[in-house]
Design goal:
Distance between the termini: 33 Å
Largest sheet: 7 strands, parallel
Mean pLDDT: 93
CATH architecture: 3-Layer(aba) Sandwich
Low-confidence stretches: none
Helix content: 40-55%
Number of domains: 1
Strand content: 15-25%
CATH superfamily: NAD(P)-binding Rossmann-like Domain
CATH topology: Rossmann fold
Strand order of the largest sheet: 3-2-1-4-5-6-7
Order of helices and strands: EHEHEHEHEHEHHE
Length: about 250
Amino acid sequence: MSARMFPVPDRHEGKVYVVTGGAQGIGRACAERFAAEGAQVMIADVDPAGEAVAEAIGGAFHMTDMSDPEAVRGLAAATVERFGRIDIWHNNAFTAVFKPIHEQTLEEFDQITGVGIRGYWMGAKVAVEQMRKQGGKGVIVNTASVQSFVGEKGFSAYQVTKGAVLALTRSLALDHAPDIRAVAIAPGLIATKAIEGIAEDVMEEVIAGIPAGRAAEPEEVAALAAFIASEEADYMSGTAVILDGAYLAIG
């Protein structure tokens, strides 16, 4: 964990946290952060590397294709079987193909939206069902993006999913207030493996367009997620929190 991060010991003690897409990047950082704050963590991913992450933090791993509704139900069932409940559900998994719409195929669109829309909807559904069974409060965190608000070339299918995430977050918050909160996180450029293949000159241009002058670290997103899911943010619901180094402030 980055030396810049300062976990709050025991803030999530006794809570059960599920994060999809938790094998690497933002999801992995969030899993590590919640574990450091006392939560029992279930990592879901199609990448088996999630098992090693779970082992390192004393959590559990469940191989899950978020585009498959039955797999999502299986994830919820496995979490309850292992930990007895679900308190925080973090929809974070994504898949993307970056090319203009006329070059994208319907199969690619279905793959992207299958995870980023249907998977998020189904994840929220099973989480809400379990939280209601428990008779207590719960929190759903949805990973959105600055691309929920602005357009970029070659990102049409991905942006469809991230726009939908905001709509889902608002609807969840209204349907289930005051017991269950729903909040979206909208990160800008994050220093994960997803950007490693970007050419150096292109990356320099991207960074130049961010007033903060850098990409965010995954741990910074994790710190925000841990706050949002805590009792300190109990009045926060139905909104998106932007973490983008002032990128959207440019207008």
